[in-house]
Amino acid sequence: MAKQADSKKRSVRGSRSGRPIMALLDLLGQRWTLRILWELRDATLTSRALRTACDEASPTVLQARLTELREAGFVELGEGGGYGLTPLGRELCETFMPLHRFAARWRSKSAA
Amino acid sequence: MAKQADSKKRSVRGSRSGRPIMALLDLLGQRWTLRILWELRDATLTSRALRTACDEASPTVLQARLTELREAGFVELGEGGGYGLTPLGRELCETFMPLHRFAARWRSKSAA
DNA sequence: CTTATTGCTACGATAAATGTAGCAATGGAG
DNA sequence: CTCCATTGCTACATTTATCGTAGCAATAAG
To answer: What radius of gyration, in Å, describes the C-alpha atoms of chain B?
Structure first.
């Protein structure tokens, strides 16, 4: 299994400003990152279950994001398999959980 | 070939689940979207100032994102020029403002 | 052995983003 | 008026990211 020590190119794209918020914004601004965190918000999912939950996204990106999220310390792979949030990841998830409520109000206003 | 700002195909990619949170997650999960909202959090910026703030991102994507954000009702173009958040956009920005604090703690843990 | 999971990877086809250049429109300054 | 600098915005070739399908090694039964 695996590899996670790809730390050679860990430069979250775009922002090398050094400011943590930028690194975080860039990480979260990649395809499927937010979605993965959201789907893991209250469940441990296997890679394939996660794929299903994520609208059958290609495993290529999913694995890439999971690797990044693990390196960031937000996600971990459990002993007997299955991905779940770390305490830190759960904390992050809580941070944008209010988005859920906001999204509902938003759609009721601008739903095209 | 070139096609952009096609206001017709607003299908936020991937998730057509109908759930507002998914649409929002997909919108925010595009490159520069979070960053743009962040940079506009407390200032009205011209397109070029925004570009500078966003690490000189290409105007192509920036314009595309701005169009999407305007259609979503989060960003607006002021009378005399310059982009700013709408009340709704400001609300959204407040939602993930705690990320700032989180990011600081996060980096102090995982950043080697 | 076969079957069915697990996490994960290869790789050609697409879609998206980059970087550079430039447009029309507006607003001064001379 | 011309000249120039700014606004928001676009063209387009190159590069990068993502998709989609297939399949791998490892593990665990049956």
So the answer is: 15
pLDDT tens digits in sequence order for chain A, 112 residues long: 333 333 333 444 544 456 889 999 999 999 999 999 999 999 999 999 999 999 999 999 999 999 999 999 999 999 888 999 999 999 999 988 999 999 999 988 765 4
User: Between chains, do A102 and B32 touch, taking CB under 8 Å as contact?
Assistant: no
Domains of chain A, residue spans: 19-110
Chain A residue at shortest CA distance from B23: A103
Q: What is the largest CA-CA distance in chain B?
A: 46
Q: What is the mean pLDDT of residues B11-18?
A: 50
CATH code assigned to A19-110: 1.10.10.10
| Chain B residue numbers touching A22 (CB-CB < 8 A) | 35
Per CB-CB distance under 8 Å, the chain A contacts of B29 are 28-35
Cα distances (angstroms) measured from residue B80 to each of B44, B60, B76 = 11, 22, 12
Dihedral of CA atoms B35, A28, B105, A15 in degrees, nearest 10, equals -50
Q: What are phi and psi for residue A58, nearest 5 degrees?
A: -65, 140
Topology adopted by domain B32-110: Arc Repressor Mutant, subunit A (1.10.10)
Chain-centroid distance, C-alpha A97? 13
CA of B85 to C1' of C11 (A): 43
What average pLDDT does chain A have? Answer: 85
Q: What pTM value is reported for the model?
A: 0.86
Q: What is the DSSP string of A80-105?
A: TS-EEE-HHHHHHHHHTTHHHHHHHH
